[in-house]
Structure formats: C-alpha cells, structure tokens
Amino acid sequence: VVNMNYMGDALLTTPALSALRETYPDAQIDTIVGAGAPTEVLRGNPDLNSVISREANGSMARIGELYRLLRRERYSEVIILPPLPAYAIAAALARTPSRIGQADRGMNRLLTRKMRTQAVHMADAMLDTMPVAPEARLHRRLSVALHEQDRADAAGLLAEAGMDHSRPLVAVNLGATLPQK
Fold first, then answer.
1. What pTM value is reported for the model?
2. pLDDT tens track for 145-175
3. How far is 105 from 114, CA to CA, in rounded Å?
4. Are 56 and 30 within 8 A, CB to CB?
5. Is 179 exposed, middle or buried (0-12, 13-18, 19+ CB in 10 A)?
6. CA angle 1, 52, 13 (to 5 degrees)
7. What are the residues whose beta carbons fall under 8 Å from the beta carbon of 169, sequence distance 6 or more?
8. How many CA atoms lie within 13 A of 116 on its CB side?
9. If DSSP codes are grouped into helix, strand and coil, which group holds residue 180?
10. How far is Cα 155 from Cα 60, in angstroms, rounded to an integer?
11. Spatial distance between the Cα atoms of 71 and 95, rounded to a whole number of angstroms
C-alpha cells in the first residue's frame, strides 16, 4: 500500500488498512509511508506486516524509491492511496501486475483496477480505494497502536507536569502543515 506523507493523512488511512486486513487476513500487507511522524503513527498497526519508511526527499526521489522497492520486492499488487499519477507511473514501470487506485485522477491508463469514489472525507475516499467487500467498509475507526513504552513515557510527562493521569484526560492538538487544513 503506497501511503500518505503526513501524519494526519496516514492516520486517516487506518480504516482502509483495517478493511483490507479483514478481507485478506492471510495476505502480506506492507505500506510505504513518509518518514518520521507518518511512520510512527502506523508502526505496530496490527493490520500491517511491515511499515517501510520513505526516506527520499522531493517528488522525483520518492518516485525512484517507490520504483526500486516495487522492483526489488516483486509485489503482486500495489494499492496507491494518494491519487498521484507519478506513483502509478512508478508502479507501471516496475511492472507490478495489479495496480489499484482512484479512478479519474489522471491515473486511469496506468491502473489495472480503477476504484470510484464520491467521498467527501479523506478516510472514506481511502476506504473506497480498497478492493474490499462493502461490509468491510463499515468499520470506519481510526487507530494508533500504543506500546507499553509509549504509555510509560506519557505517564512520565503527565507526572512531570503535575497532572493526575488516573482521571480521564482529553487533549486537542489543532494544527496542520498546510493552511487549508
């Protein structure tokens, strides 16, 4: 699964990844995603076998990195979540037999399976991109895998701040890289 480059965007793909795993429980499901926060938000996700951190900077370098990964690993199928024709070109050049992505996004001639979406919300558009049964799309829940060390680190930060972490705590982090978000 070719995933998104930003943390929030990668998080919004988790319902689609869950639907994919539900439909194909025995499949090897790997994702390539932006380095840093996007990788961390997907690391430990039970729906994935492997999270591959995209290290390249710049469009051409990312396309080359994806091309090399697809050629080296010889995946039988690639699902391109960001509707970017450049990723579809990389998959076609790598001769990946099955190339799935959103229809009518400039990729049609490069895809072997075109998935239609009229979704307004990004999580729904990602679900629509998955080759899964309609009932697998019903579980629209974002997920982040937390490890014991994550919990211990959070408890330490809360204690340092003098906060009682035995009571419910709600945190809101408003912000994004792009102004329109």
1. 0.86
2. 888 898 899 889 988 998 887 788 888 877 7
3. 10
4. no
5. exposed
6. 40
7. 158, 163
8. 1
9. coil
10. 42
11. 8
**pLDDT for the residue numbered 91:** 97
* pLDDT single digits (tens) 6-52: 888 999 999 999 999 999 999 999 999 999 989 999 999 999 999 99
Residue 94: what residue type? A
Distance CA 140, CA 39 (A): 21
Please give the backbone phi and psi of residue 151, each rounded to the nearest 5 degrees, phi first: -65, -40
Closest by CA position to 40, among listed 31, 162, 1:
31
Cβ 81 vs Cβ 4: under 8 Å: yes
Q: What number of other Cβ atoms are within 10 A of residue 66's Cβ?
A: 24
CA atoms of 124 and 19, how far apart (whole Å): 11
Cβ atoms < 10 Å from Cβ of 5 = 17
